[in-house]
Design goal:
alpha/beta, Arc Repressor Mutant, subunit A, D-Maltodextrin-Binding Protein, domain 2, 3 domains, 5-stranded mixed β-sheet
């Protein structure tokens, strides 16, 4: 039994007619009928009942159809995985990323990947950290840019970027200025935040920082992206807790104040499935390590203006 026999069988079953299936497959009807007969002989049962207007599946044929489709799908998946793992020949690498990495780490990493493999296919997918963990475990993505901590022994943290929390304050606000700030000073402020469903772990860390400082933030305005949060802060609608890497987004209309003695660590991690046999994952890890180091240096330089 060959895969082409299964493809022919599925086509006839779906079309309900050998002649229409032959047109769909771009082959002549007599050879197709012969192939179906050979398949039935090999299986040992009748798969179709012939009638004047076409064919219909027997009970055995209905059961066989589900298995045939599954085998064909698995064969296509096997081919995709083989091509995917041969990235050097133009395969694909699939990257998951949290929204806060979309404007900082991701562009730099993609540039590095394109430099060493200009013909390789790159698929990027915005995912919150728990989605990335699940996608890595089910082989839907290869690597991720996620927010730590990550509670899964199956996931390897290749490199982390220290991305501490800061308070974004509108220019001219009572809390604007330079130097670090005690978050308790923002207890009476209106806060801008990203939607919790866009990043529950990050949102919960923000709430936790405020709770640890002894207050519950007044969340009045919400945005879907980090850019959106900073735009609302720049418009003077409130303050926001954001990662230090936000300083790289060409800020206008606000300043960043580094939090004094933060009770929650902020970091971005490049992650992959532990024990992934794909040799290109090592190369990606090396690229990410370089990108993280360069970005950290740029962040530190830019934050000097806030001190």
């Amino acid at each position: 039994m060959e895969l082409r026999h299964l493809r022919y069988f599925v086509a006839v079953a779906e079309m309900g007619s050998v002649s229409r299936a032959a047109e769909r497959l771009f082959i002549a009807q007599p050879p197709l009928s012969t192939q179906i007969k050979q398949l039935e002989d090999e299986v040992g049962v009748k798969l179709f009942v012939r009638h004047p207007r076409g064919v219909r599946l027997t009970a055995a044929g209905t059961a066989f159809l589900a298995e045939a489709k599954d085998l064909l799908a698995r064969s296509e998946h096997a081919k995709r995985m083989a091509r995917h793992h041969d990235f050097a020949l133009g395969g694909a690498v699939r990257i998951g990323y949290v929204p806060s990495a979309g404007h900082t780490v991701l562009p730099r990493l993609l540039r590095q990947i394109r430099e060493i493999h200009p013909d390789g296919e790159v698929d990027v997918r915005e995912m919150i950290t728990p989605q990335q963990v699940q996608a890595l475990c089910t082989s839907e993505i290869d690597v991720g840019l996620a927010r730590a901590p990550i509670n899964s022994r199956r996931i390897k943290l290749v490199v982390e970027l220290d991305d501490p929390f800061c308070l974004a304050v509108p220019l001219g606000h009572l809390l604007s200025g330079k130097g670090s700030i005690d978050l308790r000073g923002a207890a009476d402020c209106t806060f801008v935040s990203s939607a919790r469903h866009r990043g529950p772990a990050y949102f919960d860390q923000m709430i936790g920082l405020c709770s640890d400082a002894g207050f519950s933030p007044e969340l009045r305005y919400e945005a879907s992206t980090l850019y959106g949060v900073l735009d609302l802060v720049s418009a003077g609608l409130g303050v926001a807790i954001v990662p230090a890497s936000a300083i790289m987004l060409a800020p206008k209309g606000f300043t960043l104040r580094i939090l004094e003695h933060p009770t929650r660590a902020g970091s971005l991690a490049f992650v992959q499935l532990r024990g992934d046999p794909n040799p290109f994952m090592t190369t990606l890890g090396e690229l990410a390590t370089t990108v993280f180091a360069d970005l950290k240096r740029d962040i530190d330089v830019s934050l000097m203006g806030c001190l």
